[in-house]
């Protein structure tokens, strides 16, 4: 049975478009991780193999669909070779939302097709080896929120984009 869901993306990028460094995030911002949890909990996540490897453990209460041609079985996850197959699997799940959570290839391939994009703009320009520039063409900002990560005093602007066409 094919089920419907809202396809969404969630990402955090620095002022210099930094997104990753040495297989992890280029910052440690607990309040941003908390926001990620709040937004994605109870839903499904589609991710590249390196993004999966960057997680400390399986994220509770979320389906993990990993795109990889090299990974073999990982308990508690579904591994598929392409984004199309990941979306096919997502259609079999009983979830309201499916989130693309990175990395770069997946965002480049499909971010413009997402109905909602949750973007945290991190007010830092850290050293990075993974960059992604989000240029909205088919989306406009529907809501935004400025907050500060209390432990690091880093300013963050959360922007929620909705698809317009
Ligand atoms: N700031 C953020 O919001 C954010 C979000 C996500 C990740 N990150 C960071 O970014 C880095 C990881 O991202 P990344 O871009 O380097 O790697 P990635 O996309 O997570 O993983 C790359 C691997 O995933 C598979 N893959 C990805 N897209 C594919 C596609 N369209 N078709 C087929 N296979 C595909 C391939 O796996 P195989 O080689 O196994 O075939 C590829 O080698 C880490 O540093 C992570 O912490 C940051």
Topology at a glance:
Blueprint: E1 6-14, E2 18-20, H1 30-40, E3 44-48, H2 49-54, E4 63-67, E5 77-80, H3 83-90, E6 97-100, H4 104-110, E7 116-122, E8 130-131, E9 139-149, E10 154-163
Tell the overall outline.
globular
Distance between the termini: 28 Å
Q: What is the β-strand count?
A: 10
Radius of gyration: 15 Å
In CATH, the architecture is 3-Layer(aba) Sandwich
Topology order in helix (H) and strand (E) letters: EEHEHEEHEHEEEE
Return the average pLDDT rounded to an integer: 97
- Give me the CATH fold name: Dihydrofolate Reductase, subunit A
Our count of helices gives 4
What does this structure look like?
By secondary structure, this protein is an alpha/beta fold. It has a single domain, classed as Dihydrofolate Reductase, subunit A, CATH 3.40.430.10. Helices cover 19% and strands 36% of the residues. The chain is built from four helices and ten strands. The strands form two sheets. An eight-stranded mixed beta sheet has the order 5-4-3-6-1-7-10-9, with helices on both faces. A two-stranded antiparallel ribbon has the order 2-8. The protein is globular, with a radius of gyration of 15 Å. The structure holds NADP nicotinamide-adenine-dinucleotide phosphate. NADP nicotinamide-adenine-dinucleotide phosphate binds next to strand 1, strand 2, strand 3, helix 2 and helix 4.
């Amino acid at each position: 049975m094919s089920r419907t869901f809202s396809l969404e993306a969630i990402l955090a990028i620095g002022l210099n478009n930094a997104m990753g460094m040495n297989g992890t995030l280029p910052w440690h911002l607990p309040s941003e991780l908390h926001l990620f949890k709040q937004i994605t909990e109870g839903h499904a996540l589609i991710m590249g193999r390196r993004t999966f490897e960057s997680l400390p453990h399986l994220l509770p209460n979320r389906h993990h669909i990993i795109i990889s041609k090299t990974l073999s079985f990982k308990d508690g996850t579904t591994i598929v070779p392409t984004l199309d197959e990941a979306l096919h699997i997502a259609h079999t799940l009983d979830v309201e939302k499916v989130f693309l959570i990175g990395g770069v290839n997946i965002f480049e391939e499909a971010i413009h097709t997402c109905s909602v994009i949750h973007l945290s703009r991190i007010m830092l320009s850290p050293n990075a080896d993974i960059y992604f520039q989000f240029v909205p063409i088919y989306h406009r900002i529907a809501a935004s929120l400025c907050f500060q990560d209390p432990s690091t005093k880093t300013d963050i602007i959360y922007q929620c984009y909705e698809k317009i066409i």
